[in-house]
């Protein structure tokens, strides 16, 4: 019995299955991995593996939702006068709402109208809503970095640009840390599940991956660092997308995975051009 994909067993049926690709959820997206899976888990074994992880009750979910709404409303209320409309997508879109208040200083040092700054930041911090894997997640973060830096260059006053650039670097670093923490949680759960099923080999495989995360050498980290360096060191978007396409073409991923990554690059390129056109249209 083996578990080749991180956390894959938790979403499988109890009858034998074999797949060449798997999906899991991360930040509201389906994450596709190309590891093959060969699993045959009984209902009893699956139940044992999921012990200690009871689902939240309806009351707990509602309580958490109310608490999050209260925090968000308090943050939104902290926006200074002269800021953007609180009805803007920047505050209304779940993808950006939780972090929106952290960009207050950008509005205080903006060279454009507050609503234009809010629109630019919203576009900078959102990614294409398509399936992907940790490679496409790395692409998303690299492009977010590039877009936020462009907002700083075009819409932030000269006296605050260094502070704004430093904030962007810190913000992107936090997003990378959050991604690592999510990977660590999934790997830990997969390792515990493998142990509960008596698959010591796979438990060790997942634990080795956790150790790589701690060392900063996990494949998801090396890919992400490569792409962040790409958009940080070069301002030419044509170079970015050419590099990304070449990387996918030269990879040894399954054709299905490569096609997903190429489609994601195309979506990112279209999004980037739309973003640039919108920034340039602001007087």
Overview of this structure, please?
The protein has 283 residues and is mostly helical. Helix content is 65%, strand content 6%. The protein contains 12 helices and 4 strands, in the order E-E-E-E-H-H-H-H-H-H-H-H-H-H-H-H. The protein has helices spanning 43-49, 58-77, 89-92, 94-100, 104-108, 114-124, 134-155, 161-196, 200-215, 219-233, 237-250, 255-281, and strands at residues 17-19, 22-26, 29-33, 37-39. The strands form 2 sheets. The protein has a two-stranded antiparallel ribbon with strand order 1-4. A hairpin with a 2-residue loop joins strand 2 (22-26) and strand 3. Helix 8 (161-196) runs antiparallel to helix 9 and helix 11 (237-250) packs antiparallel against helix 12 (255-281). The protein is globular, with a radius of gyration of 21 Å. Residues 1-42 and 77-81 have low confidence and may be disordered.
């Amino acid at each position: 019995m083996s578990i080749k994909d991180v956390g894959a067993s938790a979403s499988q049926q109890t009858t034998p299955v074999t797949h060449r690709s798997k999906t899991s959820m991360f930040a509201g997206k389906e994450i596709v991995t190309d590891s093959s899976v060969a699993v045959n888990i009984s209902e009893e074994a699956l139940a044992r593996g999921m012990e200690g992880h009871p689902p939240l009750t309806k009351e707990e979910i509602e309580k958490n939702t109310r608490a999050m709404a209260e925090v968000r409303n308090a943050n939104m209320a902290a926006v200074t006068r002269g800021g953007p409309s609180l009805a803007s997508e920047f505050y209304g879109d779940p993808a950006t709402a939780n972090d929106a208040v952290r960009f207050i200083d950008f509005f205080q040092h903006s060279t454009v109208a507050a609503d234009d700054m809010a629109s630019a930041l919203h576009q900078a911090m959102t990614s294409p809503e398509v399936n992907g894997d940790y490679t496409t997640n790395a692409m998303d973060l690299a492009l977010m970095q590039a877009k936020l830096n462009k907002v700083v260059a075009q819409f932030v006053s000269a006296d605050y640009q260094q502070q704004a650039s430093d904030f962007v670097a810190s913000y992107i670093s936090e997003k990378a840390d959050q991604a690592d923490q999510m990977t660590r949680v999934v790997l830990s759960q997969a390792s515990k599940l493998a142990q509960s099923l008596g698959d010591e080999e796979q438990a060790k495989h997942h634990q080795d991956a956790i150790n790589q995360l701690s060392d900063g050498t996990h494949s998801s980290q090396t890919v992400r660092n490569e792409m962040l360096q790409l958009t940080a060191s070069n301002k030419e978007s044509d170079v970015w997308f050419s590099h990304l396409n070449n990387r996918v073409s030269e990879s040894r991923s399954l054709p299905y995975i490569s096609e997903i990554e190429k489609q994601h690059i195309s979506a990112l390129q279209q999004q980037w051009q739309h973003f640039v056109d919108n920034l340039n249209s602001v007087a």
